[in-house]
Amino acid sequence: MERIAIVSDIHGNMTAWEAVWKDIQRRGVDRIFCLGDLVGKGPQPAEVVDQIRSVCEVVIRGNWDELVAVNQDVVDFTWQAEQLGAERVAYLASLPFSYEFKISGRLVRLVHASPQSVYHRVQPWDDMDRRLAMFDPPTKDSGTGVADIVGYGDVHNAFLQYLNGKMLFNTGSVGNPLDLPQASYCILEGERNDDIQKPINLQFVRVPYDIEHEVQIAQRAKVPALDAYVREIRLGIYRGLQE
């Protein structure tokens, strides 16, 4: 049985990531895929990038990773780029748009936000056509066809839906959850590289972490939009910028 931990949207929150990483290790899962947004909002982007590079087998690009990499003239992005340094910024720019693999006879595709763009946001309550388009081949990478299972991050809202026999799921966010103020990730279980459909399992995991410790780190670092970041991680309230 293959077991893969799927994480997303750490957003520079090293406190949350360390709690999730310990939980993954405790469960004995040795494959980790990351769906992007390593940076943005939180106070420790460099530390998070180094950790994710070290332990994740697959890392794809998120919208914040892309925005920081192009270094737009917005304080949130330039502050993050300065903390990261040129080499880490180049790493973020090099990340692929999507990743796909076979498990238990299903084609699984992972994207950050949607197959169309890292900025094309899809919520679980959007109309059916918009959600069904999540299974289309990605426009930025070559895909092998319509996916059976699509996993993504971006909206910081963990969920699972079956749509016309296909499975759409969101991992939620490790570092900036907006549904419940606990770090969120998923574990996917099945038979690796199998063309015959066999049992498959997706488990959602919520991990409590020391939010007040993270608040103190953010305060010392004087992150941009500090009050909004603290409100989000304490209460799960969205501040209105890019997730």
Give the CATH H-level superfamily. Metallo-dependent phosphatases
CATH class: Alpha Beta
Q: Give the low-pLDDT segments.
A: none
Helix percentage range: 25-40%
What is the spatial order of strands in the main beta sheet? Answer: 3-2-1-9-10
Number of domains: 1
Structural class: alpha/beta
The number of helical segments is: 8
Any idea what the radius of gyration is?
Answer: 17 Å
Gap between N and C termini = 34 Å
CATH topology: Purple Acid Phosphatase, chain A, domain 2
Q: What is the 3D shape?
A: globular
Architecture in CATH? 4-Layer Sandwich
β-strand percent reads 15-25%
**Beta strands, count:** 10
**How would a crystallographer describe the biggest sheet?**
5 strands, mixed
Q: Secondary-structure element order, as H and E? A: EHEHEHHHEEHEEEEEHH
**Mean pLDDT metric:** 93
Could you characterize what this model shows?
The protein is of the alpha/beta class and 243 residues long. The protein has a single domain (2-235), classed as Metallo-dependent phosphatases (Purple Acid Phosphatase, chain A, domain 2, 4-Layer Sandwich), CATH 3.60.21. Helix content is 32%, strand content 22%. It has eight helices and ten strands. A five-stranded mixed beta sheet has the order 3-2-1-9-10. Strands 4-5-6-8-7 form a five-stranded mixed beta sheet. Strand 2, helix 2 and strand 3 (58-59) form a beta-alpha-beta unit.
Supply the key terms.
5-stranded mixed β-sheet, 10 strands, globular, Purple Acid Phosphatase, chain A, domain 2, alpha/beta
